[in-house]
């Protein structure tokens, strides 16, 4: 019965591609990549025909069902034209592919049908059966691929024309679009749009910053090179030597290093599907105008002329109805006006620094975060350990699978307040409506032997941890409403800072993401607060607003500097007798949009941060202190 059901699904797949079992065979694979690998390993790779593939059916077609339906993720297929199947010379054979073979002699006879020769082992029959429902649902909802093609191409073409027409107030383009077509022929252009954004000086905006801001508007984009290095190099002008030098500079596939020497290492891609709507186009374009166009917004009228003769009705929408976009020089309130922003002093006294630039200001606050992603513990003075502030991010909360929880997935973590009690040598965990629970700071060797040692990950690094027991796990599970546990970094586990530029021995880390310390400048906070007030039409900043903003950036050290953002240029910093080395700038994400007192999410301050920093969402700098001697940091009142 299972075999018959799978065969019916094979037939349904061929029907979807307007062919038959007489012409093609469906070979199920573990994914589209495996389908391509099958051809690459089995095909002799030498010219066998001079046929024009534009006039004749393809020999092989690889399919990703995940890309078609969003499910299942681990299943693909290869369509093999029957009269070309004989040229695939497979060397390996697995279970179910042999008609006969011997264990003591080099003897093997393959099964006669193409699918049975290439499907090693048991196929994923439950996932295969689900494909039938996917094809039927797609047909019922859309009426077929021809309609989907017209619909999605119309949306892509509309967005392409409007995005290409957007100009900053000085007339410079907002986007550089990468395409081999001008979006006039749906048979030559798919429903995707690939681009990079430009500021009003023509400089590139990093794609990771675009992605971070897009997430605030619930817009999902893909960024990078999309596993297509050839097209990426061609369109972005990246040479082979540049790829190698970028790797030496620290950039690897999938990271957030989007600009190197001002040149992009990838781009932004948006895609349209059958479920996409015209409102989605409007939402995306409004997002671009709101966050990346320095107004008043202008449009290139000659580009808009292309909208009028378009065939699909979806792309005949009048351009003046696009929110935030106008063909004249008038301005709407919701647009960004970066030119109107001013740097205004807070009016509060700044402690004079010493004459040397090594001490630019005064340390005003010290924060540590004993449990990663939970609330801050503010102190007036605190010991420095080999990994940073003593007991900073030594513990973290994980789900039942051992995956670290952060405020991105569970904002209520910020309402869990840890306290370090050095006198009694324990950690107390507190939250509103809950009795506190206590955990030893340094468990005895006997205690740790009784608790399981487990592996977890922090920013891709494997870390060795120790479970803190059932009592605190029950407390956390009750408060968060889901099974979770508290784990502690093993005392004998060493983790070094990746790609550190401080020189000397490797810098040891706790469970922090990037570096031992994070420092921010109150002068920079004041400028950012002014931008937020300006963008939202509020009055002058209040003391509470500034303090709340400081908490969102979750820094260890807060200083009162002479100038806003001067910290970006520092290479070292001395606090008291302790010398710190700068390890880089801190790139920000949507986590700073979480109010640390209420756990509510908002688009600020990330939106204003990107605006006032010309699309670069960095704030604060990382520090390292590689001394093995424990010292103490204190605020002036400490």
TrEMBL record:
GO terms for molecular function, please? lyase activity; molybdenum cofactor sulfurtransferase activity; molybdenum ion binding; pyridoxal phosphate binding
Q: Reaction catalysed?
A: Mo-molybdopterin + L-cysteine + AH2 = thio-Mo-molybdopterin + L-alanine + A + H2O
One biological process term in Gene Ontology: Mo-molybdopterin cofactor biosynthetic process
Q: Supply the EC number(s).
A: 2.8.1.9
The modified positions for N6-(pyridoxal phosphate)lysine read: 67
Instruction: Give the signal peptide range.
Output: none
Q: SUPFAM superfamilies of this UniProt entry?
A: MOSC N-terminal domain-like, PK beta-barrel domain-like, PLP-dependent transferases
> Which family, according to UniProt?
Belongs to the class-V pyridoxal-phosphate-dependent aminotransferase family. MOCOS subfamily.
Q: State the superkingdom.
A: Eukaryota
Active-site residues, as the UniProt record annotates them:
227
Which InterPro entries does this UniProt record tie to the protein? Aminotrans_V_dom, MoCF_Sase_C, MoCo_sulfurase, MOCOS_middle, PyrdxlP-dep_Trfase, PyrdxlP-dep_Trfase_major, PyrdxlP-dep_Trfase_small, Pyrv_Knase-like_insert_dom_sf
Which Pfam families does its entry note? Aminotran_5, MOSC, MOSC_N
Every copy of the MOSC domain together lies at 491-638
- Give the encoding gene's name: MOCOS
The name under which this protein is listed is Molybdenum cofactor sulfurase
Entry keyword set: Molybdenum cofactor biosynthesis, Pyridoxal phosphate, Transferase
Per its UniProt record, the required cofactor names are:
pyridoxal 5'-phosphate
Q: What does this protein do?
A: Sulfurates the molybdenum cofactor. Sulfation of molybdenum is essential for xanthine dehydrogenase (XDH) and aldehyde oxidase (ADO) enzymes in which molybdenum cofactor is liganded by 1 oxygen and 1 sulfur atom in active form.
